[in-house]
Every structure is written in C-alpha cells, then in structure tokens.
Amino acid sequence: MSRVFNFSAGPAVLPEPVLRQAADEMLDWQGTGMSVMEMSHRGKEFISIHAEAEANFRELMDIPSSYKVLFMQGGAIGENAIVPMNLIGRTGRADYVLTGDWSKKSAKEAATYGQVHVAATAAASKFTAVPSQSEWKLDPGAAYVHICSNETIGGVQFHWTPDTGSVPLVADMSSDILSRRIDVRKYGLIYAGAQKNMGPSGLTMVIVREDLLGHALAITPSAFNYQLQAEADSMYNTPPTYAIYVAGLVFRHVKKMGGLAAMEAHNLAKANVLYDFLETSSFYRNPIAKEDRSLMNVPFWLNDESHNDAFLKGAEQRGMLQLKGHRSVGGMRASIYNAMPIEGVQALVQYMKEFESRHG
Ligand code: PMP
C-alpha cells in the first residue's frame, strides 16, 4: 500500500494513525463486537465516544463553559441558512463581510431570512485581500457580523480578529478550524464542516455562546434549532455517529501532537516553503496580499496556462494529487491542512522547480 500526497481542498487528507485506528476498530470497537457505525447513539458506548470528542475539542480550542458545542449535520452551506434562522431574529438585520466566494454565498443565503447588509467587501482588490477594519461600515443594530475566516477557493485568510463591539461575531471556519490558536471569547458563534481539519464529511461543528440561543425564527426546522440541539446534547435527531467517532480520533491525535500551538507552527512552516518559492518564481504566481495569504489553501497559476495539463499529469505521476484549482477560478491550488506533512509541500516545490526548468 502506498499513500499519496493528497492536496484536496476537502474532503481532505487525514492523519494516518487515525485511519489505522479506525481500520483496526472497524469490526469490533473495544471488545463490544460491534462497529461504531452499528451502535445506537443512545447507548453508553457511543455516549462515551461523543463525550470524549466534545471534551477534547473544548480543551483544544479552549472553549469557555458559557459556550455550547453542537455536533450537527447540513455542512457549512446548511449553516449559511441555519445561522440566520437562529440568530437574525433578534433585530432582523445582519452584517456580512465579503472576502471571497464562500462569504458571498453565505450573504446570499442569509438574505432569505432577514435584511443583509454588506459591511465590507474585497471586490475592489478582486478578492485578493481582507478589507481593513477601518473601511468596514458596521450596523450597531445588526444581530451579528459574519465573516469567513479562510476563503478556501480564493486563498485569503484573516490573520486578525475583527472587533465588532457588542454585536456578536460569527465565523465560518470550515477550512481553518484547529489549524491555529484562536480566542473563542471574541466570537458569538463559530461553525465548520468537518471534512478539512477534523474528519469525514457529514459532521458540522457549531460553537455558540449560550446567550444567543432562543431567538430562532418560527420557520426553523427543529433539527436545525440550536437551542433544541443544545438541550438534547446534539441528540435531538440521530447525529452523524461515525463521523463524530473519527473526528474524536482526530482531536485525540491533535492533542498528542501538541495541540493548536503545535499545529500553528507546523502550518506556518509548511506554507512558508511554498510561498517563499512562489515569491522567487516568474513562472508561477499567487496574487494574494502577503499579509492575508492563507496558510491552508494556496492557489497559484502558471503564467503560461497552456502547461496546466502537463503540470497536473506530472504531479500525479509523482503521487501528488488534487492540485487542480477550483473550477470557478482555474489554475492550481494546494490545500495543506494539518494532516499534510511538510514532506508533501517540499516534494511539491521540488516538482514545481523541475517543471519550471523544463518549461520556463
Ligand atoms: N465554507 C467554506 C469556507 C468551505 O470551504 C466550504 C467547503 N469547501 C463550505 C463553506 C461548504 O461546505 P459544505 O459543502 O460542506 O456545505
């Protein structure tokens, strides 16, 4: 068996020890004679898996007890509707900051449930930079301010936390959760699909400050009502049990590797290998403002796009997969989440140099 360097944007590479443990436990989880997939979510075995996953997630992210952690379904696109259904009702209005495709999608979906105001947009820079907060026009009567902390397609990331005063800050952290330390206390709500840094798709994590519960619009489906899910310990409906189990193994693994401070150092070192090379190259380019470059998703373009297919084919022959950029922007994209080893990024840069010397 040989494992490739998988640069997919998500579902994405997972830590090999986690996959091995899941494989070992597939038919018989800890002497129960059952796979986790076959267990009742109400049985003591699964309840212990769920409780350990939540405890480790809370510890990793240093989540205060005044916040609920919900294990939900529907993905981040689901949350684009679920967030406003639950939160916008307080005042009927919300601010959105647009830094790329994902935050634009969030704003569009929210407009079904209330009045959406674009507080800032990166349109002027063609979505290559985060607008500085001095340019934001925040509405003090907004129910919340929404950002996407890392634009997975555009490769633009917040490296600072906006100050929204008493208006709760909501962040889509799908593609950078668990990649670095953040101060949860500065947010009202954080959501993230699991399939980049946490585990398989099908699980969506929500961290919500308790005082924001209880404002759901009457149309909110009960399975998507944060308060009902919080009261039921995320078991109002059957949760995605197997995905929670694997995410729990990932949380344990990340703790063992030194937690989020260690992830941050590892991710910075990896991203630097790639960005340092891109800066010196006249064959490839990355147009993102240096201070806003994503440490997770690195889009880059060959100046001569006629070499794209040859570039991808050569990468594949060397065991480097899923480097094709998102269909909406073209070019290339290297997603280098927590579980991507630095050797993968070094191999990519080595290949990029070779390709350049052959075609440059
Ligand atoms: N937001 C961000 C930042 C994402 O990267 C993605 C998925 N790539 C989504 C939202 C949508 O996630 P899903 O398809 O799981 O709903």
Characterize the structure shown.
By secondary structure, the chain is α/β, with parallel strands linked by helices. The chain has two domains: 16-256, Type I PLP-dependent aspartate aminotransferase-like (Major domain) (Aspartate Aminotransferase, domain 2); 260-359, Aspartate Aminotransferase, domain 1. Helices cover 34% and strands 16% of the residues. The chain has nine helices and 14 strands. The protein has helices spanning 16-24, 44-61, 75-87, 101-110, 226-231, 241-256, 259-280, 308-317, 342-359; strands at residues 5-6, 67-72, 93-98, 115-121, 145-148, 150-151, 156-157, 169-172, 189-193, 204-209, 284-285, 297-302, 320-321, 332-335. The chain has a seven-stranded mixed β-sheet. A three-stranded antiparallel β-sheet has the order 11-12-14, with helices on one face. Strands 1-13 form a two-stranded parallel sheet. Helix 4 (101-110) links the parallel strand 3 and strand 4. Helix 1 (16-24) crosses helix 6, helix 3 packs across helix 4 and helix 7 (259-280) packs parallel to helix 9 (342-359). The longest helix has 22 residues, at 259-280. The radius of gyration is 21 Å and the shape is globular. The mean pLDDT is 98.
Topology:
Blueprint: E1 5-6, H1 16-24, H2 44-61, E2 67-72, H3 75-87, E3 93-98, H4 101-110, E4 115-121, E5 145-148, E6 150-151, E7 156-157, E8 169-172, E9 189-193, E10 204-209, H5 226-231, H6 241-256, H7 259-280, E11 284-285, E12 297-302, H8 308-317, E13 320-321, E14 332-335, H9 342-359
Parallel strand pairs: 1-13, 3-4, 3-5, 5-8, 8-9
Antiparallel strand pairs: 2-10, 6-7, 9-10, 11-12, 12-14
Helix pairs in contact: 1-6, 2-6, 3-4, 7-9
The protein binds 4'-deoxy-4'-aminopyridoxal-5'-phosphate.
Main location: cytoplasm
Family: Belongs to the class-V pyridoxal-phosphate-dependent aminotransferase family. SerC subfamily.
Binding site for L-glutamate: 42
